[in-house]
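dude i think i finally got it to work??
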Amino acid sequence: MINAQINDPFRKLKSILFSFDVNANEEKKSLIVQLVNTTKPNKVKPLHELLLAVMAYPANEDLLLFTERETRKLLSRLEGKQSLQNKLTGTGLLHTSIACNFSFRNVKYLLSKFPGAISIHSSASAPETQKNILKQLLPDVEYALIHAGDKNLQTRLSRFHSTEQTDLEWLFQTFEQSGLHETIQALLYQQLEVFVHWNISSEKDSISFLRSGLKLNTVYYHTLPPDKKPNAQSIIAKPLPRSVLLSLEEKQNLIHAAKMSLVYLYRETEPFTNANEKDVTLFNLDKGISIALFGSSLNKRYSLESYIGYLVLKNTIPVSYGGGWIFGDRCQFGINILEAFRGGESGLIICELLRVYHQHFKVAQFIVKPYQFGLRNPEAIRTGAFWFYYKLGFRPENDVLKNLALKEAEFKQANPAYKTETATLRRFTKSNLVLSLSGVSTLTPDPEKLSEHITRYIQIEFNGDRKTALNACLKRLLQNTKIDIRTWRKEDLEYARQVALLFCIYPNCDEWQKQHKKQIESFILLKSAKMEMPWIKQLRTFKGFWKMIQTPLSF
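look at this
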């Protein structure tokens, strides 16, 4: 078995992926030449991931160009082989297809980028559901075709339009012409349970050559293996360079790279799906790593937090994604390293992310929820993800588990072969992990708890009548502050209505509102600014707010 593994070119290439001496570089070439001739479905995807990693972590220009050429050879072997293409559905490779149930906004984006190429693959909705939704979109006098039989969705829709449009394009055009609010359109579309289909016919639209659209002054070439134990404190403290001045086109390209990175994975995140072209920030950091930050469009922003997404690029190739839910100096944090790039610079990548969020947004407390290191996540348990975060300075929020982790860490230090039991790793998932960079142990209140307080307040004070609660609290806020709302936009007034609930649940709230009129007005109006940064900054410095939400409640 051992000899077989040593002689297996795939395993050999994987074993030297992050070795960069002359011998390793030449061996990589030799192994790639052997492997790109494969047409075995179970080998194409993992081989392609290795090629991506070589392109993101090149040792020199010659190896980079060589790998790009060999990748194109691998993809050319898929052309015309329908059976092989079908087995590689969902990989994002050239000549293969994507079939997935994406959100309304994401499908709308795909239709705009790939006109005529996105169609309905299938629908899991019942015929009655389809009829009821069409009744909301079409004139009543078209009832004959709306109610005609129990056909599948494609057949039903095809009778309403010409062949110049796909069924999906007609459906979205009809949604747009309906006059319904986008939220209602999205809800109706969701009920149709549509799976869309896309054939990837262009190299630049495939996962292999998806790039951020940014031009690099220099590619970072590796000569040394990645540091498996980066010094988190020194990296986080290293001064952040100025953000890159981006053109609108460059921002759009970054948004496209972010969206498509997840399309290939059949996933979505809110900051990517709802990305705001005016709110894209890029930092070029060390060793070819860049981090792009994405704020959301106005109508998709959170009420008490700012959900800022990120895409990590290595030599312009997407390698990681995730986001942070920022609330004052607190940030709930999530990270996903794309499969092709695991085992390389994962530690450095998360350190650079912490550096950016800490210095750019002034975050001092990072929170990692249990799913990231094992709750309902068997892979995280299997890989011991808890210790990945622990080595970076994260500690359990729960004191009992913090002490248990300390003892386990001592066992591991005394005996490098020591493995923490699975039951113990699962036990750790009973608590969040926290990294405090401020030296202050007190945690900023969790906004989810504030939301729970508001719900309880509505139940107790207004008997669950939310319309009355919203109107009463807004009236109270405006009476106390005497804010002139005549120049406010509709979205400003609606946000004021929402947060007035929070501003009214605490004892002595009337006096508090009168005292902090200017800060409250800024708090409300900055939520609809072009970028989320001004609101994040204002909230962090609104000392009266933080004092208020730590006041004990009377209910």
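DSSP finds 27 helices and eleven strands in the chain.
im so relieved honestly
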